[in-house]
Amino acid sequence: MKLVTFETGGERHIGALRQGETEIVDLTASDPAASGFRDMLTLIDGGADGLAAARLVLRRAPVVVPLAQVRLLAPLPEPRQMRDCLSFETHVRQARANRHLFGRGTERLDPAKVDVPRVWYEQPIYYKCNRFSVIGTETDVQWPRYAKLLDYELEFGAVIGRRGADIARADAWSHIFGYMIFNDVSARDAQMREMAGSLGPAKGKDFDTGNVLGPWLVTADEVGIPNDLTMLARVNGEEWSRGNSGSMHHDFAAIVAHISASETLHPGEFIGSGTVGGGCGLELGKFLNPGDVVELEVSGLGLLRNRIAGPAG
User: By the 8 A CB rule, do 25 and 54 touch?
Assistant: First the structure.
């Protein structure tokens, strides 16, 4: 299923797409007495039984609304936790090769000769995001007032569906509820400045509207193992980036196993893949401008579209 959170009549509802992604079966309105359809976190908490109940409503479809007549929100407006990984080697190399853009050296380095820390190969690397700064598709990204260089990052991510700690890699796929696109919008000048202090990122990532999720949450059974998803980014209709999920050095099974070591993962947590190789302006040596429209598209996961508003006053 492709699950959505949307606004109707001033209220948040959840639903599932049907009819070629042009209609939404309103799960919340279809069974008002069912507390399991109150919001997306509640549905995820319901596990297999919750999904079975949603599929039953989808077949009956008592309340259907046209997709074009509602406002989509982020599928998970407030994830229980957000982490973002650094899983694509080409991104690591190309981003580091362009450090000269921030006064670190005088010219671009050869990405093949860039030093990648050994630990990056040995284990998944991640940071924790601000789970309250999430927006969905067709919502403006507000330029943070302290930044001059704004960038998109082409990613997708997994949502945890089952609680667990010390999850074995072989069992990790069964703990994933579904997947969606992630635009990890980045204030690059702020990020580079703060990370020189050997901690972060923080203000380079966590400003309001900086984490874009959507357009829908696709259940894991529909995606399968996500090792061959085409990933595209367009700015104002021009293709800037193209990559494939299969180039992840650490896949989501390895990531879930690593993060859950002596740490409990809970349903409704979001884990980003990190930026696919070539998937951001930093790697390309160019950045966004106010008014730009950024579209991220991942095969099977939809298209995420946002306008850059600002800079903030």
Answer: no
Q: Which pLDDT band holds residue 229 (cuts at 50, 70, 90)?
A: very high
User: At 293, is the secondary structure helix, strand, or coil?
Assistant: strand
Mean pLDDT of 204-219: 97
Supply angle C-alpha 52, 6, 231, rounded to 5: 80
Within 10 A of 223 (CB to CB), how many other CB atoms are there?
A: 19
CA 272/CA 252 separation, integer angstroms: 9
262-285 pLDDT, tens digit per residue, is: 999 999 999 999 999 999 999 999
Q: What is d(CA 92, CA 274) in angstroms, rounded to the nearest whole number?
A: 10
Helix (H/G/I), strand (E/B), else coil: 251: coil
Q: Is the CB of residue 214 less than 8 Å from the CB of residue 136?
A: yes
Helices (H) and strands (E) in the chain, counts: 10, 19
Q: Give the Cα separation of 101 and 111 in Å (integer).
A: 14
Contact (CB, 8 A) for 150 and 294: no
The β-bridge relationship of strands 134-135 and 211-219 is parallel
Q: Which of 235, 232, 191 has its CA nearest to residue 84?
A: 191
Phi-psi group of 110: left, alpha or beta (phi > 0 → left; psi -120 to 50 → alpha; rest → beta): beta
